[in-house]
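Structure representation:
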Amino acid sequence: MNRPLVFSLAAVLVCLSVCSCKGSAGKTNDSPTESKTKLLGEFNADSAYAYVARQVAFGPRVPGTPAHEQCGAYLAEKLRSFGADTVIEQRATVTAFNGDVLPINNIFASFNSQATNTVLLVAHWDTRPWANMEASITDRTKPILGANDGASGVGVLLEIARNLGIKKPDCGVDILLVDAEDYGSSDGFTNNDRSWCPGLQYWVKNMPYSSVNRPSYGILLDMVGGIDAKFHREHFSHNNAKMPTVKVWGEASVLGYDGVFINKVGGAVVDDHVFITEAGIPTTDIIENINDVTGTFPATWHTLDDNMNNISKSSLDAVGKTVLNVIYKEKAL
């Protein structure tokens, strides 16, 4: 996906490596980690990787472009093919920070919708219109492919959805593929935090829940496919959505992924989860926010190198198996 970089907090949270969205760098390490406990479901990293590659093949998924429209149709059809009870395409227009009017499509699917206990899984499927982290001024005007920043989280959720269609969970699972997450201002983050995630902000104002049927919690996946990725507890998740954060990092530890899910508080990221938590659904963010090389986001973040060459099946595997185990261990209330 990616998204809102909390540079607005950078001055005061330098020690937290304040960050905001995606990337991946390093050497490839695709050897599987040995699990310490039983894996629930059959998450397939090759399948997740193929879903990432399919999205990238459309090209940059910037709202209002043919690639965006084609990819949206593909994602909705895949969710239907996996047996979702309901698939809703929430189409609307939102106005970006720079005045651009964006046609958005928030894609929402429900599995086991009759359950009394529901978990919300989220990823953004759009891509950044500008490679603003490129060294070349000319390159900064080009859109990114968003293999990690967008497609990686969606690819994992599609593979999870495939599993849910085969083996029904005890709980309900809602999957939200949110649009226009990455259409935010990187010019002076101090006053621009809320320029990010306009698609999610629209969804929150029109979400299909009341105070009595909201999901118990949410899990956001953003930039989860980087090479040698490590996922520290995101700062806002740790403080404002502790329950799902403990569930995810605890399950990762049980599965033997302690070296991938680092049980320490990392950077603060303004991402979709912030707005969902504010709406009453505590949501944790799985995002690489302390990269070994950069100290913040991966080196490919908001660059033209955010492509399939920098996607790791091993990272997709660790995230997917962890989240799927969390889901299958969740009980109906």
